[in-house]
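Exercise 7.
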Amino acid sequence: MAFSGTSSSWLASTLTLLSLFSLLIPTNALYFYMEGRQTKCFFEDLPKDTLVAGRFETHVLQPQSNTYAIDHNMKVLITVEETFDNDHRVVSKRDSHSGRFHFSAADAGQHRICFTPETDATSGFMSSSLGAVKVSVDIAIGETSKIETEDKDKMKDIVQRVKDLNSRLHDIRREQVYQRERESEFRDQSETTNSRVVRWTLIQLAVLSAACAWQLSHLRSFFIKQKLT
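Solution. The predicted structure, written as tokens, is:
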């Protein structure tokens, strides 16, 4: 009986631990398969003012290898509708083979989230018939979600990059102001030097003119004296 009681206690503890571990496992990731241009929808009952952030990725079945691979020509139409409000559409977004979507529930109620695979009209591949498509979706609900945290981290990174760019722009502007000041000083020095050169040239011309006039006057007096004698 003692052994049976110990086994029951151990089993209860094990079940409790398994229950706790199951709560720690995220349950917001899912994937599903689609055939052709089929539209696949699922429903979420959301409270009012609830933030929903999701990301998705698609893979197309390759007949040659019978494996799923990324097709860069793939387009996906994501729509979100409020079923309680005459299917009022709150999101309609056409994205590439992978992407993100966000929306906030304006009112409490059931929301229908749909995915429709498409392909590039310019591409002949899968233009007539679209093969099997695997869609992986990760949806987080609430402001403390993992996806929103990642988005906030990316926003912080972008903000930091913008701040770095602004600081670099300020440095460039300071350098430009400094260069303009240097150019202004150099221009002032050049103008001062040019004015001094012109002034000195005028002084030299005046001295030479005076010397020439004196020499002419002296020669004239000399020739007059020679003529008189």
